[in-house]
Each structure stands twice: as C-alpha cells, then as structure tokens.
Write a structure and sequence with these properties.
The protein has 323 residues and is mainly alpha-helical. The chain has 13 helices and no strands. Helices cover 81% and strands 0% of the residues. It is globular and about 65 Å long. 40% of the residues are buried.
Length: 323
C-alpha cells in the first residue's frame, strides 16, 4: 500500500512547529538557568530525559508509535549515541546558563563546521566550495564577535566548544544508525535517554547538584515550576519536532529553519535577555555570522533543488531509453 502523500499544510506545519520548538526551548532554558538562577543544569537535563522516556513509553503503550522492545544487543546497537546524547544535552545547558543568547547562538554555528568534518569522515560526504566559504564566513563573524565580547566567560565558551563537537558527532552517528534501520528514530530517542538516566543521576549526586536542586528555594514559585516543567517537556518536543520536520520535508529544510530561528534568537537576546553588553565590534561580528548563515541557507537550498532536477532528468532519460 502506497504511503499517503504529504500535503503542503503538513509540510509548513512541521517546519513551523520545529522552528517554534527550537526557539522556545532556548528561551525557557535561559529563563530557568539564568533569570531564576536554578543551580543545576544537570538536573534540568535529567528532567528532559525522564520526560522523553515517559512520553515515548506512553506513546508505545497506546500504540501511537512503535520501536523494538529491549534486548541484550540494544546497548551495542545504540553505542556511542547515549554518551553523545547526554554530553550534548548537558554541555548545551551549561553553555546556555553562562552565555548571553546572541553569543550562544553565534558560537553554536561552529557545530556546522564540525558537522561537515564529521560527515566527511564518517559518511564520506563532500561539500561544494560555496557552502564551505559561507561556513567559514559564519566562523569568521563568530571570531570577530568573540574578540569584543565584554561579557566573556571562558567556561561558557569551553562548554559551547564541546557542545558543538558532540552535536556534530551525534548528528553523524544518528544518520549512520538510522540508515541501518535497526531501532528507528523513536527507538534511538527512547534508549538514548533511558540508558543515561541512572548514570546522570549518579553524576548529579556526586557533584552535589541533586542536593542543590532539592534545596533550591524557588520551588514555591508557581511561575518557576511551570517553566521548569516546560523545559523538561520541551526537551522531548524539540527532538520530536526535528524528526517530524525532517520526515515531512527534508534534513535540509530542518537546517534552514534552524538558521532562521538563530537569527531571531540573536536579535531577541540582544534586547530582552538582560545579559548582553553592546559593543560595535561584537555587533558587527554577530551580523557577519548571521549574513553567512542566511547565504548558507540559500546556497544549500538551491543546490538541493538542482540535485533533484538532475536526478529527475536522469530518470526521464533512462525511461526513454527503456521505451
């Protein structure tokens, strides 16, 4: 039985849903960790893992989604994704806490460079010269912005560096695992979170983060509690919306929506985040990086369209030859 074709509305809804989810989780995490000064990024990550496990388990129990039951070879099939997943999540949360939103989003563009390197090594993928130049433009702008970051935080920069490396490795390995079609997208999400909950709880206990979270005096604040639980749920929603957007559109569309979202986060962060310190050099660097990301989106979109047209032409030629 042929799959039901995806409507234009479903494609637009999936792209909009991903963009909104991606924007909201950055804003909510920033509010919880910086504005409310919640002391433990690790505990926020644990909350997001628990939400992912519970939602996917309930979805499977209600037969809304499906993924393989646990078996002895499941850990081997997922490795090293659980380690990359939790590392990516925790370093991202620490970076969000310590950096202002404009610098956070600009420094995250290094993940595109690292992803290119990872896909080149693991998936043998090649990139055109224009794409490489636009990525270098984004990186150049980030360097200029960082050189005049008056709110410079070395630990924050280090967390984002490791976050970018882990994001790139995670993306390349997810692609590799999905291509193998053993666990499926929901299976990967479920077991990644499930396997890392207990180790992360132990880490939170050993570092004292669990005690700090329990003793935090903001639990009586209804607005904080709502935002904390929103952050937990949004961790899963973001992963689901990413899958949905890629399914209904393409990985390229997901990347482009992410770039456009980062532009919005950058400018909103300048005005409303409260921790951005303006300087002309930093502002110019941010805008160079933003311009590079927009050109990158345009070039990758046109290259994808050209690739599709060429593929269709090849199929037409083959069909004529057969006839």
């Amino acid at each position: 039985m042929a799959d039901k074709p995806v409507t234009v509305f479903e494609k637009l809804f999936a792209a909009g849903f991903y963009g909104l989810s991606s924007f909201l989780i950055v804003v909510v995490n920033k509010s919880v960790l910086t504005n409310y000064r919640f002391p433990s990024s690790i505990c926020v990550g644990i909350g997001q893992m628990l939400a992912t496990v519970v939602v996917l388990w309930v979805g499977k129990a209600m037969r809304v989604i499906s993924f393989p039951d646990y078996a002895e070879n499941i850990p081997l099939k997922t490795f090293p994704l659980p380690l990359l997943y939790v590392g990516n999540q925790i370093t991202g949360l620490f970076g969000t806490k310590r950096l202002n939103l404009p610098m956070f989003t600009v420094l995250r563009r290094f993940s595109i460079l690292f992803t290119m390197l990872a896909e080149g090594l693991l998936l043998k993928k090649k990139f055109s010269t224009p794409v490489q130049l636009t990525v270098l433009t984004m990186i150049f702008g980030a360097f200029i912005a960082a050189s005049a970051d008056l709110a410079f935080d070395l630990q924050g920069y280090m967390f984002i560096f490791f976050n970018n490396v882990l994001t790139a490795a995670n993306g390349a390995y997810v692609k590799q695992k999905l291509d193998a079609k053993e666990l499926g997208k929901y299976g990967l999400l479920y077991y990644n979170a499930l396997f890392m909950i207990i180790p992360t709880l132990l880490l939170a206990h050993m570092t004292g983060d669990m005690q700090k979270a329990v003793e935090y005096d903001g639990w009586s604040d209804v607005f904080f509690v709502c935002q904390f639980f929103s952050s937990c749920i949004m961790g899963f929603v973001l992963m689901y919306s990413t899958v949905l957007c890629t399914q209904h559109n393409s990985a390229l569309t997901t990347t482009i929506v992410g770039c456009i979202k980062n532009v919005l986060v950058t400018y909103v962060g300048m005005v409303f985040s409260g921790d951005y310190i303006f300087s002309w050099t930093n502002f110019i660097g941010l805008n160079i990086s933003i311009a590079g990301s927009l050109v990158y989106s345009y070039i990758t979109l046109t290259e994808e369209q050209t690739s599709i047209v060429n593929e269709n032409n090849k199929l037409d030629i083959r069909g004529k030859v057969v006839v």
